[in-house]
């Protein structure tokens, strides 16, 4: 065996499989990818995919300087902005997304019309969509703009159905004009400009796993 071109003969010699070039019988062993956890503030206009020949822009264009191959945890549609986690740790991603303990997500929505208490109650109780009744959502009205006839609200869900928040709001008669995911479990967008990313701190990774372990076990309410 050789490490970085030098023979290794001493018992107990160590090598770093993430950094060193290790060869056995002349064959190079593949390096083990370092576990990578990223937080991206996705702007609108970018699709959440690694490759898409039909898309004008993908999120991978925003990840300059990232050497590891990472994948998004869940998705945001092209018209939705906000928090997106990317990783090469499949077990971590599965724990966050598994239907039995999906981590809560909060979206800030700007919708057409002045939302009344009846619509809020429907969202909080669950609304009927073509793929079934949604689980209860938490709804906080931020502003009702009488001049523009719009409502700004935060809606927290745990299910991950396709375009779910938009469909829920459509179901109660309010078309979404703008949608941003502002929280994913304990993580927020604080200090992260649109189109930029940063690495998650170890404590944040731990907090996400703890959130997945402590969220309610029944599937609840994606974008």
Give a topology summary:
Layout: E1 2-3, E2 6-7, E3 22-24, E4 27-28, E5 37-42, E6 71-72, E7 80-87, H1 90-97, E8 105-112, H2 117-125, E9 128-129, E10 132-133, E11 138-145, E12 150-157, H3 164-171, E13 176-184, E14 187-188, E15 197-199, H4 202-214
Properties at a glance:
223 residues; alpha+beta; nine-stranded mixed sheet; four-stranded antiparallel sheet; 4 helices; 15 strands; 17% helix; elongated; disordered C terminus
Largest sheet: 9 strands, mixed
* Rounded Rg: 22 Å
Which structural class is indicated by helix and strand composition?
A: alpha+beta
Helix fraction, binned, reads 10-25%
> What's the average pLDDT?
86
- Listing every helix as H and every strand as E from the N terminus to the C terminus, the arrangement reads EEEEEEEHEHEEEEHEEEH
DSSP helical segment count: 4
Q: Regions with pLDDT < 50 over 5+ consecutive residues?
A: 217-221
Percentage of residues in strands: 25-35%
Distance between the termini: 51 Å
Give the overall silhouette. elongated
Structural summary, described in words:
This protein starts with a strand and ends in a 9-residue tail after the last helix. It is elongated and about 75 Å long. Helices cover 17% and strands 30% of the residues. A hairpin with a 7-residue loop joins strand 6 and strand 7 (80-87). The strands form three sheets. Strands 5, 6, 7, 8, 11, 12, 13, 14 and 15 form a nine-stranded mixed sheet that branches. The protein is built from four helices and 15 strands. The relative contact order is 0.19.
